[in-house]
Amino acid sequence: MALNPVLGKLVSKRVVLASASPRRQEILTNVGLRFEVVPSWFKETLEKSSFAAPYEYAVETAKQKALEVANRMHVKHLRTPDIVIGADTIVSVDEQILEKPVDKQDAYRMLSRLSGKEHSVFTGVAIIHCSSKGNQLETEITDFYEETKVKFSDLSEELLWEYIHSGEPMDKAGGYGIQALGGMLVEYVHGDFLNVVGFPLNHFCKKLAELYYPPPKHTVQHIKHDSIPSVDTFENLSDGESESSNFTEHKGANKLDSSRMCPSRPVYNCENSSSVRTGFTVPLENQNGASESAAKLPSKILDLMDGFKASKALFVASKLKMFDYLKTKGPLKAVDVANEVGTSVCGTERLLDACVALGLLEKTSQGYSNTDSANTYLTSDGEYSLHGYIIHSNDHLWPLFTNLESAVREGSRQNHRAFGRKAEDLFKDYYHSQEVKQRFMAAMHSIAHLTARDVATAFDLSQFKSTCDLGGCTGALAHELIQIYPNMKVTVFDLPEVIANISYFQPSEQCAAPVTFVSGDFFKDNLPEADLYILSRVLHDWPDEKIHVLLSKISAVCKPGSALLVAEIVLDEQKTHPARAVLQSLSMTEGKQRSGSEYKQLLEKYGFTDVQIKITGTLLDAVLCFKKNLSP
Ligand code: SAM
């Protein structure tokens, strides 16, 4: 692959992408760049009017994002990256800058402005080379921007709203994602498509080529850097000093001298045989049986092939509490971790290295230490610890997914194969032993605690005086509700065996008002009175008959004007996104995941109206609906 030598220059460097955008990560991963993701905390609040042109704003924001990460890593975490990459994408129309919409109305406003018109998408990129002199962080900044022109068709109101309700616009500059549903709105694109997706890869590689292979002075006038140098040119590039640095002289001279292409990967000559491969190009057969070297390395598929190994490495390191030891005692050498945990040194070293490769740990000459995310999410005692859910995934979901083939063949849950028993429902399975129950509750608690704020603030719930969280488990959401709405009385209703075990999960500090816990069976017993009922991650577990019982009961106790808040992952209308929900449904519980229109239909069937759906863009979405007023 042509870019490999340039990207190969970064192989031995600690490269950090200061962006949480999965699209940017995918673009860079797809070309084989290895990097750590440290999302920037820089708030995108620069005064737009102080910039003469929109692209200047994007470049400055990209620079500030990258500098914030470089500084934070240097000062707070005492590990200076070699390179930090920052990027910021904006849409500009009529000299106005559009960023991400804050809500659906904002998305509507943006998309209507783009309808039928040409607009510009600018991505500013900053590449910051960092070094540490004494205690000082030194930086060298290279920045650039790329502009792509995009024209939208005339968008009908219906199409606009359909698109907005898909949830796609919410985390995207200008309110659309060209790589998915938003592609349907686009009449033409002039310029780099990936720039619109979020990262101008072509320009980025040219910049790297300029930085790492500066043309020698005597050839400068002859070389126009308006395109990425061809493979031959790259093959000839050394560090800019040797005889091969004269591009024109050496162009094409060593086509078969593959030994110099990339020091980090074996490269084979692929010109004369369909059975040999380059590091990145595999010969394909077209329909006529002719061979064509067309495909790039299918990194997505390769990642999926190895995905189970990565999950298991995370699970085992968590189960052995390695992240806990490293948080309190790190950096530690493998032998010290092995001694703490009671494992073999060679096995521990391999597992720790795997965690480094997965971006969960850092490795320096002093030993292994946690990354920021490991400290926050993987230690067992962190406020936002996912430890409980990870252990549940290892001990419960892993054996179930090992039997996925049978689950698909038979269309049913595989608890009997995985655990040698099949209870009448999911929760009888979880609650048959104290140990499994405690594990399940810890798993629910970790996710609920992480998502509670998004659910509690998805809508303004301040009008409700009393709330009952049905199946509210440890009360993680209930406590968050009280924090946000101090005048709200919150009751958690759950099975007796759960309520008897909640004490371990209660916050140590006193809340504004205590949460009330009531035990009962929501299919059989009377429900506590409330003017807001919540079903968080409940509906997807049950078959239609059970849902009928539950929603009929809630509808019957709801007074007109009271409401029901459902927290679930809402699928898109095709029911193929987000993948998390689609994969979850593979465990073949009798319940199912639903799209926005399916939730609307379901809730309306039980007398709820004004169904509003909020796609939060995080782990759980929210659906709010109101009990119909009695007809006048
Ligand atoms: N709402 C919590 C959350 O979002 O994290 C927990 C969700 S968990 C998947 C489902 C909850 O429903 C569990 O706490 C379970 O004990 C509770 N549950 C299951 N069957 C129930 C029943 N018949 N009556 C009351 N609660 C029940």
UniProtKB/TrEMBL annotation:
**Keywords for this protein:** Hydrolase, Methyltransferase, S-adenosyl-L-methionine, Transferase
The protein's matches in PROSITE patterns, at most eight in alphabetical order, are given as: SAM_OMT_II
Q: Which GO terms describe its biological process?
A: methylation
Q: Give every O-methyltransferase C-terminal domain span.
A: 401-608
Q: Known InterPro entries for this protein?
A: COMT-like, COMT_C, COMT_dimerisation, ITPase-like_fam, Maf-like, SAM-dependent_MTases_sf, WH-like_DNA-bd_sf, WH_DNA-bd_sf
Q: Where is this region: Disordered?
A: 239-258
Sequence intervals crossing the membrane? none
Protein name from the UniProt record? Probable bifunctional dTTP/UTP pyrophosphatase/methyltransferase protein isoform X1
Q: Which organism is it from?
A: Aythya fuligula
